């Protein structure tokens, strides 16, 4: 939502620190039709230290054996179609795929009827288990809070745009080993130093350097909106404006729920979004100190349309998930089999999040509204996860030498 790789986490990540960031019954899938022709070789995927390929990849169950909900399959196909513009161009840091691998499925998706989407996925994909395949899924949503574009009585929490003194450094330009890594800071005395953290910003450290694009009425509600990475401001006249992620201060994200549990402020089972909000509102004299345990601070801009994910395409409730691109190619469909039925089935990885790290770690997006907030706020699911990769991917990665259990041999 543009969650925005460094800044965000999910509501449940608030509670458990595993987040920015921007998650139903099924019918039996149809029989598996002939496999597509594999694409010609292309440039290899980009490998990074700690990725899906290095974690181990093995074939999962056939896509035809999954109980794909035809109705949801149509929505997922539509989302996959929008992702293809980026999917066939971007390097895959998971080490699993090449851009050409996606071309047959993307070409077919362009004209495939949404009503027949359940037959599309068995035709063009196979499932792959990354590492153990053990799933951990949380949830995020698009919150609505009381806010105003202009200063007004009762609206006194500043919403900052990007500061003019914040510098972003691409570390990959200095060392190949740091490819894909960035840091943010500011120049002070000729040196790059860390940018102010949340407490310092709240204390006025960036006044004069960052535009105030609006004002929130409730600092706790705004804190949670920052974690989500985008949201809606309901203004005093009832009108709605959308704001989205513009940047982040480069400071680490800390899930305050986990910290509160460690301090004895919350009992086990209370560390949901609702439990955290309830505690903060009941202890207003301590709320700032608790929220400042999260040093990360998000800057915003106005949006003219729906929230966008890290792929630069709109995220859709009940369809999009945030994932770690080192373990899941962004744009790829994924199959979740969790212990929470709401999160079961097909999704598309279209977003990232600061606390969404590692294999089989997903953040499910639930859209906007009270029901979305309720589901996302309590989502903490375990189970199994499979990536849907172009047919032939696992065989190619193994060099045709998979073990008897489908595992790619490790060096």
UniProtKB/TrEMBL annotation:
PANTHER family: MEMBRANE-BOUND LYTIC MUREIN TRANSGLYCOSYLASE A
Region span, Disordered: 22-42
Lyase is among the record's keywords: yes
Domain of life: Bacteria
Primary enzyme class: lyase
Name of this chain's protein: peptidoglycan lytic exotransglycosylase
Coiled coil spans: none
InterPro entries xref list: 3D_dom (IPR010611), MltA (IPR026044), MltA_B (IPR005300), RlpA-like_sf (IPR036908)
Signal peptide: 1-17
PROSITE patterns reported in the protein's UniProt record: PROKAR_LIPOPROTEIN (PS51257)
Domain named Lytic transglycosylase MltA: residues: 144-301
Alphabetical UniProt keywords: Cell wall biogenesis/degradation, Lyase, Signal
Entry EC number(s): 4.2.2.n1
Pfam families from the UniProt entry: 3D, MltA
Annotated catalysed reactions: Exolytic cleavage of the (1->4)-beta-glycosidic linkage between N-acetylmuramic acid (MurNAc) and N-acetylglucosamine (GlcNAc) residues in peptidoglycan, from either the reducing or the non-reducing ends of the peptidoglycan chains, with concomitant formation of a 1,6-anhydrobond in the MurNAc residue
